[in-house]
Amino acid sequence: MWESILGVDWGSIFRPETPLLEMFLRGTLMYLGLFVMLRLVLKRQSATLGMTDLLVVVLLADAAQNGMANDYVSVTDGLFLVATILFWSYTLDWLGFRFPSFQRWLTPPPLELVKDGRILRRNMRRELITEGELMSQLREQGVEDITAVKSAHMESDGRISVIRFDEAPHHTPEPREF
After folding, report:
1. Is residue 115 exposed (0-12), middle (13-18) or buried (19+ Cβ within 10 Å)?
2. In the sheet that 118-119 helps form, which strands lie side by side, from edge to edge?
3. Stated pTM of the model
4. pLDDT per residue as tens digits for the range 118-163
5. Longest dimension (CA), the chain
6. 14: helix, strand or coil
7. Which residues of 40-73 are buried (b: 16+ CB within 10 A; e: fewer)?
8. C-alpha to C-alpha distance for 165 and 147, rounded to whole angstroms
9. How far apart are CA 35 and CA 41, in angstroms?
10. Phi, psi angle pair for 70, to nearest 5°
11. To 5 degrees, how large is the angle CA 39–CA 29–CA 95?
12. How far apart are CA 152 and CA 137, in angstroms?
């Protein structure tokens, strides 16, 4: 009745065209495969997402779509695929929280870029950071001269943290659990 009134084939909208197990496996393989490739290649994450990084993400999404979905057209297929990707995103976060050794694999450790006022060029090359980019980040944090920096690290989220020589380490007592 509704089909004839609205001219919509409701069955084709909600009836999965691809078996759900196949969709789950495709989504799993593409998500984990892209995660590993991006983890190995792109260390700078959202905090320093530049135009080329954004372009890579858009192109990867477009290229991965057919591999994940096998050209799906039903809403159910699309929602199930999105649920699979969200499942793996949550699962990896949960595993990283639950198992610290797993978290070390998921998140790159901080990389020291400046030590005792000297730029560590090998580490800069490793992350493809120019001296100009580093100095720009330091200026944003109020540092004009590299010799004032005791240490600077690229954190796992792509931001650069800075400790100046004039900053004494702060000790905050550990909260007690009762």
Report:
1. middle
2. 118-119, 111-115, 149-154, 160-164
3. 0.57
4. 999 999 998 889 999 999 999 998 999 999 999 999 987 778 899 9
5. 77
6. helix
7. eeebbbeebeeeebeeeeeeeeeebeeebbeebe
8. 9
9. 10
10. 55, 45
11. 60
12. 10
> Which range, of 9-18, 23-32, 47-56, 57-66, averages the lowest pLDDT?
47-56
Closest CA to 112 of 38, 162, 157, 42: 162
**Amino acid symbol at 170:** H
Single-letter code of the amino acid located at 94: W
Structure tokens at 70: 């096998």
Q: How many angstroms separate the CA atoms of 88 and 80, rounded? A: 12
Q: Which two tokens stand for residue 64?
A: 């991965």
**DSSP H helical segments within the chain, as ranges?**
2-6, 10-14, 20-41, 51-69, 75-98, 100-106, 121-127, 131-140
37 contacts 30 by C-beta, under 8 angstroms = no
